[in-house]
Structures are given as structure tokens and as C-alpha cells.
Protein: FRG domain-containing protein
Amino acid sequence: MRNIKNIDEIISNNENNHELIFRGCAYDYYDLVPTLARKLNGRTSFEQYQKYVSIVSNAANRGYKQIKMNGKVSDLSQHYGLSTNNLDWSNSIYVSLYFSFTSYINGFFTKEFDNDHYKKLNYNERTNYILEELRYKFNNHIYCLYKLNKNLLKELKEKYSTAPIEIIETDVENHRMKAQEGLLTTIDISQLINNSLITNSKISIKDSQMEILKKWLDKIDPQNTLEKCDDKYLWKWNGKLLLEKESFSLNQRERCDLQKKLNDVGAISTNLFPDFEGVKKNIDISENYNLLRDWCIAEHSVSSGMGFQTDPKDEITG
Structure:
């Protein structure tokens, strides 16, 4: 059974733990599987997966050179929306919570409200019922935050130097990655292929990064101390917590408080995306959230959209 945590407790217990890096997700069921792997068929071989990664990387590299973008190819691709074999993390719990919250607002608006429901709200006599259904979904939604002990993972890598998981540190030439205090984790596909572990270990591209690491270690060292505790979202190594997923919900007051905290620490769109995309995200999130408030789906929980730092007269209300 899921243990739904209080968001204030999650922040206070983790914000000053500098051994941890964080990954915020809009949906509790999201696993640690990169975008490219999620898009491909589960039967895709790692050899073919590596070809897809190379094709995207080579094409992106040519493009970055043409438009004179600075930074490493893998980091740029991840932070500018391309499908990669990497996962985003941040040293900041607030940045990760920003992505959890804002991604859900936009996703909810598009999937639940902007299409058929929106038309029904205007023309269907069951409007009140539909509004109540949408309100319940929005206010009882479960988000999640992954916590990874970066230092402990580095210790594991020191013991098993050929372990296929890697941490990519912040590329300061990548303005978005720097602003988001970002890091990446990635699976070294060539390491899996070269060691002929894929078939015998039943490793799939759809496995989470931690599951791939565990299957690799079980093959290399059956006595290894990486263990899955309770469920697949709590992992320990040498008796210490390596990875944990914490699920949380946000009621009206908690949404208000979280937005204030994110604004106070500067975890807002225009800071995390220091280019025009940040301006656009700011406006889109504000517009979507204000429309949800106008229909009382978000219960008029805040006075402006997430990170929309303007005068009250500029508030988007529909």
C-alpha cells in the first residue's frame, strides 16, 4: 500500500541533505525509465537501442554546431526536449518539486479539461457532476519525488568500476542545466552489450535504471549487497539507503504554501529556463491554472499562476 507523505515533511527532512539528488514526477506511477526507452517497443534489443541513441546524438550534434550552441551533446539534448537515454535529476529539492507540480497542471489541463470535458462543461446539463469529478481528480492527485544518494552510488561505482550506471554532473555551459542545478543518470549500453549480460540476465530497455543495475550486479557478483526493500522504489546498498520514492498529494493549502516556497527560492519558470521558453512556460502555466481556478476545479487556491511574477493587474483570468 502506498505511503502518502506530507509535502512539508518531505521538504524539511531532505532539503539540507547534500548527499541526495532529486527527481520530481507529475505522476506517482512514473518509473526511472528514460524517454527514448519509453517510446520504443519493449522487445527492442539493446543493440538497436544503442543505434537509436547514436542517430539522435549525431543529428543533434550537427544541429548544435550549426546554431552555435555551447555545451555537451547529451546534456543539451536532455534539457531542450529531445528523447534520450538519460534521466534528469537536480541537486535542489525545490527544482524537482517545481517539475512535479507544473507538469501535472499542464498535463491535467490538456488531458482532462481542455478537450471533451471543456465542451461538456459548456453544453451538458451534468455540468456540476463533471466539475465535481474533475475537482476530485485534481485535488486528490498523487505526485512523487525520487531521492538518490549520489555519494553512495559513487561508492558503488568505485567498487564495481564497470557497473553500467553513470552520473553526469552539471554542464555549466548548458544554461538550463546550470539554472536547474541539473545532473543526469544514464545506463552505459555498450557496457551491457560488451559483457554479454543482456540475454542471460533478461534485461530489458523498459527496466528502470536501478533494475538494470541490480540484474547486472547479480550476474557479476551474486553476493552483492544491492537490495530491493519492500517494493521496487526502496533500494539499499551496504545497508544504506540508495534510492527511495516518496509519494505525496497537495490539498488547497499545501498548493498555496508550495507555490510560495518555490517563488521564495526562485524555482520558477523564467529562472529555470533562462530563455524565451521560460517566458512561454510561465504564461502557459498561469493561464492553465487560472482557468482551473475560474471553474473552481483548483478551488481558487492561489492568486496567480505558478511563478507568474507580475503585477496583479496582469493576472490571466480566462
